Each structure stands twice: as C-alpha cells, then as structure tokens.
C-alpha cells in the first residue's frame, strides 16, 4: 500500500471515529506523540484537575507521562505494587476513586463504534479507567481499525485472546429512568479520547 | 413452582393492569416508542442489516444445534484458566451452589449486576432467607429492589415507573430530599453504591454469552456495574443459562452489536466485559465461579420446533414492539420474561399446565418476529404451544371456558339458535334482580344498559315491511 493511500484510510477512520465518539458525548483531540504530554498538561490545568491516576502500560511509560505530570505539580497515584496484599489494594482503590482523572491507552479502537479494547495485562488498568469520574484514553492513529470485526482480528495478532479484557465505548451511562439519558452512573461520566500520530 | 411468581393467572392480571392505569398515561408507551425509534435508526444505518440478521440467525442456530460440543470446549478453556464450574439442573441446585460459594468465604453480602437468570432462580429471596444481603447495582434493578418488585422489562427493569415514582421512592427509602430529576437521582444511587463496590467481597453477574473458542464470559452493560462486580470483588459468581454459548469472539462481536442496536438503539453498549478467569494481582478476583443453569432448557432443546427460542439474545425488542406488552406492561406476565418472548419462554420453561394462558397473550400480529435480530418465529411458536395445550386438554376433563366458547361457536352456526339468545337476554333481564345479567367485574363503575324489548332481527323484519325498502332495491 502506498503511503498516500494509507494516510487517506487513516484520515477517513479518524473522521468516522470522531463522529461516532461525538454522538457518545466524548471529546476528541488530535495531536502528535511529541506534543501529547504538553497538550495533556494544558488540558488538565484548564479542567482544574489536580489528582491523576495513570495506567502502568507501555505507552504511558514510553511517553514519560508519570514524570512529566509529577514535574508539573499533579498528584499522581503510583501504580499498585503487584505483591501488595488485599488491604493495600483496598486503600489504592479508595485513592483512585478520589482522583479527578484516570489515564490509559488502548492497543486497538474500532472507528465505526468508537470502541476501545482494554486488556487486563496491566491489572491496574481496569480500576484506572473505571473508578475516577473522568477517563482520558490515548489512541495511536495506527491503532485505529474500521470496525469490531477488525478489532477482534487485530487483538488476535498480538495475543491468544485469552486474557481478561473489556471493550469501552464512551462514558458510563443509563436510561433507566423514563429512558432519559444520564452519563456517569458507576463508571466515568466524562471521557476524552486523544488520537495521536507517532512521528518517525 | 413454589415461589412469588404467579404465572397461572395471566388473564386476570392483564385485566387488572389495564384497569389500574385507566388514564392511558402508561410509562411503557413512552419508553417503548423511544426504544423502537432508536432501533430503527440503527437498523437503517447498516445497508446490510438484513444480511447480518440472517447470518446471526444462522450462527445462533448452529451454536444451539451443537451446544454439547461447545460446552466441552468451554470446559477445557475454563479448566486452563482456573474457572470453577457448577452445573445446576434446576433452581434449587443453583441456589445451593451459590450459597456454598458465598459461605465458603464467609460473606454476608453480595453485589449483583443485572441478570434475568438470577430472577429466574429467585436468588435474592433465597439469600435473604439465609441471612445474606443481595444488593442490586444496575440502576433500574436497584430501584425495583428498593420497591420490593421485579423487573417489568428484560433490558429496562424500571420501565413501569415514572420519574416521580423514583423520586418518592428515594426520599422514602434513602432519606434524601425529594427530586424527580433523573441526573440527580442517578447521582444519589451512584454514591450509595460506590461505597458498596469499594468494599465488595463477592460479586455476581449474568452471562450474555460464553465464548467457546476463548473461554470468555461476556457481559454487556452500560453503567459500569458489570465491570465493578467482576473486577473489584474478590470472588465472582457468573450465572449462565445453558444455551448462552457462542462460537468465537467474531460471533460475539456481531451478536453484541445486533443486541445493542435492537435493545437500546446504540451502535455498541458502553462496556463489553470479557472475563476469562481469576487475576493473579492484588486487585483480584481470586476466584471465578460459573454456575450453568438448565431449568428446562435441555428439555426445550429436545423439541425441534421449540428449540429455535433458544437463539434468543435477550434484547427485548419484541417487548417494545408488541401491542399487548405496550398496553399491559411486564408484570402481568407473572414470570421473569414478559412480552412475546416471555409468552413463549414461560410455558416452555415451566410447562403449559403451569402457565396455561401465555400462548394466548398475543394477537399474532407478527411484529415480534419482524423485529427479532435472530428471527425467532415467535408467532409460529405461540401457535405450536396453543396446539400443545389443546392436545394436553384432550386428555383432561371439564373446562368452563371451553364449554362457553364451544356453545357460542355452535350457536353462531345456526340463525335460529343465535336469535333466541337475544330474546332470552331480554326475558332474563326482567327476572334477574337488579334488572341485568350479573357481571360483577364489568359493572363496577358502570350501569348495564337495558336490553331492548325487540331484537334487531325483529326490528328489521318490521321496518322492512313498513318502509317497503326491500322493494326499491
């Protein structure tokens, strides 16, 4: 595939996913990997967020987000030591529930629906994207695929697909009272997706 | 069934339901209309929607036809990942398995995400009797549990309530200030349940699909409570109907989207939780149990006609589109599953003798079959059950209703006998106290009109002679 065709496909996926996410009340931001950290800090300051929880996944550490956010004065909840006992885990969860935002990344997102795969390879992720009231999700452009069928396929390329996982499509919501839509029942009521381009 | 379910009195309960909401402001009408509009929008979005329905129907049927093999595959996966399997042939066995798991970890409280099967095995009542508190965490289920009721819809449990009802309930039971603002009410529930989640020891969830290829227990939710109970509790109990198996993650992806589109008009639900087993880390869960419930499903599986009902993916679209459900709502059906799918499933699960009227709670208009994402021929299955009931009755004795209808049918075949009915009525009226044929239910709030002295036939004969109209023609 030529570089231009590839770029066109990416652009059309970005457009599709942006539309899909916006109908779900998700804010979508485009950036590059080198600009992402600065943009994120700016963004958190504007939203008056002070406490942040970060996933321990590879993307977040490659982007050096924990150090950057700490340096910028945010209270960053350290990831949970995997040898911690249940009491410590309980305290950690309580702390997570009190921060303003949880930040994670996704290995693959389906453009048609705006669904992101979250693997429990890093067990923290499940709580980081669930307990805080705001979830910021980082997606690399090259990890956008067309639809759910392609998402399932891409998941299979890097694993045997036997791990605990969850597909996340927008913020937590309910319509249990007279079918009126309300965001943020048990999971985050606010979600931001940052689509970034990796510069070579 | 020895239970609070009343599936034997469907007719009486349906009439009662219509009487109790005489103003016609049924919350059902509003909500079902919204749900159908959403579904239609999402169906029109896919050019190949019909092809996808056909494919899903076929894959579901293949899964049902090969269930024993798929269960073997699942067993292997679950063993590899350390999921403990419990099989229950009926409600009692399921209850006992669950009680044992909870007692093993000495818990006195469990957090539940939505599961219709948990209603079917009446686990809440059972646990309470055994001093264990079940806490429903789906907002609709939480509301319904606080009211001491049962869900009135498969995917929207509190559909029978208006916002004012919920406001009064929360003020009364949670001691908060009255509000009928859905966002504020939702926030109140969030705060009350958040404390529960953080301290959760045992969680219970339903299973929309078990994936044979990967071993995942897939749960579809929007609120996030399904994720909470499966990732924040130390012990997870997944309750699964025996037929809820799909072949692969690809099939799951397709069914999930059809389910979301048909149920709530979403392209996808917010969460598709894929639980594959215990987690070794400090957050758990340390134990994952799956309880597979038969409760009549294997019997249905043996009937080649009824077997098709096992394809059901519980989207509830057939309820939303059903003219009967929209009038009477979910509770008159008396069991767990209301609407057209309930009309078929309730007698199929419990026998036509236990639920004699369900197959008749339909005008056979066919809207349910037209909307079903996996094309279950619900009208055909209702007729099949009516036939079964008739066959069943041949072997039994006297039935007052049948006598009345068969007499009426014979009378209408003969003009002389039929007209004698009208004359008999006007004569009867003179001799019966109160001046009318006694119909106590109907006469509540009504005055029975007097029967005319003359029948229409008599009047016509007379008038025809007087005007000579017949001659003009």
Structure description:
- The complex is a heterodimer of chains A (200) and B (473).
- Chain A has 200 residues and is of the alpha/beta class.
- Chain A has a single domain, classed as 3-Layer(aba) Sandwich (Rossmann fold), CATH 3.40.50.
- Chain A has helices at residues 3-23, 33-46, 58-62, 65-71, 86-98, 124-128, 148-158; strands spanning 27-32, 51-54, 75-77, 101-105, 109-110, 115-119, 134-140, 144-145, 165-168, 173-174, 182-183, 190-197.
- The longest helix of chain A is centred in the N-terminal third of the chain and has 21 residues, at 3-23.
- Chain A is globular and about 50 Å long.
- In chain A, 47% of the residues are buried.
- Chain B has helices spanning 10-20, 27-45, 49-65, 67-81, 91-104, 116-120, 123-129, 139-146, 163-174, 182-198, 225-231, 249-264, 297-302, 317-321, 323-328, 339-350, 367-371, 378-394, 400-413, 415-431, 440-443, 456-467, 469-472; strands at residues 83-88, 109-112, 133-136, 202-206, 209-211, 217-221, 235-241, 245-246, 271-275, 287-293.
- Chain B is 53% helix and 10% strand.
- The radius of gyration of chain B is 26 Å and the shape is globular.
- In chain B, a hairpin with a 5-residue loop joins strand 5 and strand 6.
- Chain B has 473 residues and is of the alpha/beta class.
- Chain B contains 23 helices and ten strands.
- In chain B, helix 2 packs across helix 12 (249-264), helix 3 crosses helix 12 and helix 16 packs parallel to helix 18 (378-394).
- At the A-B interface, helix 5, helix 6, helix 7, strand 9 and strand 10 of A face helix 2, helix 4, helix 8, helix 10 and helix 11 of B.
- Strand 9 of chain A pairs antiparallel with strand 9 (271-275) of chain B.
